[in-house]
Specification:
Length: 444
């Protein structure tokens, strides 16, 4: 099991310390089945895992094949027999132990999450906190899961009994690796289900750490399994006859495929997909608060958040003041090593994704949008980070509703500004999107 010796932090930089820990972590296989880390027995191929902050290869990971998925599902089905028979109180106690253990190891998980994903350390710490919250919440909820007794005519009665579904599959995104693993597994396990989880191929580390932690606190083997792989591995899971429910977080195109696969097997399915969320800022808003809100809604996790408020509608009378403050604060953001305290924005997930985001900015300029700041590649001063995937946070003005950047999900640090005159206009334009997911309003 991965451990960081915090006494060594005085003798080595955080980056050196975490790099050593990551190297040690990859000495073992990344699949976790039946309580132990195991090699993929019949991988379809291998893929490279890189550290976004440096661009360096962390490992080559086998992509799990059908046989590997079969073993994970079988382990979960076997564990379901006993796990589902435990009382909610007993399951809740184990989840509470997991929350306490994760709090003890919060810094360790956070540092590895920043290596894995590229987000700043302060964000990773908060992400771990939300996993702890989720575990504690569902630990408390587990004992209270009850059914209903329904009196009927003539002395008859009906009983509604709540029962676990069976084996749940979680397929997670690369922007919130451990948070999604925790948020998907906590309710599933609290209700007596078992799980097979596939993290994104870009971020395989912390899900395995969570699986090991579950075993450490006494959650039985097979209750939570991890298989690594790319899209084909995901399809082996969504089409598997031994799976009863699929929870997927990711893109709309992939979500459509997941839903279609689940329909063939009549599986329960939950999807959280893309967004192009509006943020409405009215003239009576607290200006400082609104500026901070707009920055958080666009530059958190390098803008790689599905519910980000990427379409910022500002009432005309305050537009100039708002833009001046927004640009000033955005230019002051510290970009660089995500493992260092003080970094406000880290590295995007990959070279390909960085190029995709930068191409959106160039396309917006060609369509008539004006770049107020950012939208360029960025190279930190530290030579160790020279191969990382950094860009400057971008603010686009004079964006029109029909432009590509106004219609499509960019999933990067790009904020688009719009101007409105009336509430009715703002609401109408805010709702003129194929996406849903979220919205924000700043007003008194």
């Amino acid at each position: 099991m991965l451990r960081i010796n915090h006494r060594l932090l005085n003798m080595a930089s955080v980056r050196e310390q975490v790099t050593r820990a990551a190297s040690s972590f990859f000495e073992k296989p990344l699949n976790f089945v039946d309580g132990v880390r195991v090699d993929a027995s019949q991988p379809t191929h291998s893929f490279v895992v890189e550290e976004p902050a440096t661009g360096k290869q962390l490992c080559k990971c086998p992509s799990s094949g059908q046989e590997d998925v079969n073993k994970a599902v079988q382990s979960a089905r076997e564990a379901f027999k006993s796990w589902s028979q435990l009382s909610g109180l007993d399951r809740g106690r184990l989840l509470q132990k997991a929350a306490l253990k994760l709090r003890e190891r919060q810094e360790e998980f956070a540092r590895m999450e920043s290596v894995d994903q590229g987000k700043p350390l302060w964000e990773s710490r908060f992400d771990i906190e939300t996993v702890i919250d989720g575990l504690e919440y569902f630990a408390g909820l587990a004992p209270s899961i009850t059914g209903d007794h329904l009196p009927l005519q003539g002395g008859s009665f009906g009983i509604v009994k709540r029962e676990p579904l069976g084996v749940c599959v979680g397929i997670g995104p690369w922007n919130y690796p451990v948070q999604m693993a925790g948020w998907k597994s906590a309710p599933a396990l609290a209700c007596g289900n078992t799980m097979v989880y596939k993290p994104s191929q870009f971020t395989p580390i912390t899900t395995v750490m969570l699986a090991e932690l579950y075993i450490e606190v006494g959650i039985p083997k097979g209750v939570f399994n991890v298989v690594q792989g790319e899209g084909e591995t995901g399809r082996f899971l969504t089409c598997h006859p031994g799976v009863d429910k699929v929870s997927f977080t990711g893109s709309v195109p992939t979500g459509k495929k997941v839903m279609a696969d689940c329909a063939l097997g009549i599986k329960h399915v939950t999807l959280e997909l893309g967004g192009k969320s509006p943020l409405l800022i009215f003239a009576d808003a607290d200006m400082e608060n609104a500026v901070k809100g707009a920055m958080m809604a666009n530059f958190l996790t390098q803008g790689e958040v599905c519910c980000n408020g990427t379409r910022v509608f500002v009432e005309r009378s305050i537009k100039d003041e708002f833009v001046e403050k927004l640009v000033s604060k955005t230019k002051g953001m510290k970009i660089g090593d995500p493992t260092k305290d003080g970094t406000m924005m880290g590295a995007v997930i990959s070279k390909e994704h960085k190029e995709k985001v930068l191409n959106y900015v160039q396309g917006a300029k060609k369509q008539g949008a004006k770049v107020l700041c950012g939208g360029d590649s960025f190279k930190p001063d530290d030579p160790a980070l020279s191969g990382g995937y950094y860009m400057t946070p971008c603010i686009l003005d004079q964006v029109e509703d029909h432009m590509t950047v106004a219609k499509e999900e960019i999933f990067g640090p790009v904020l688009s500004l719009f101007t409105f005159d009336t509430e009715e206009e703002a609401v109408r334009r805010a709702n003129d999107s194929e996406f849903g997911l979220a919205a924000g309003v700043f007003t008194k």
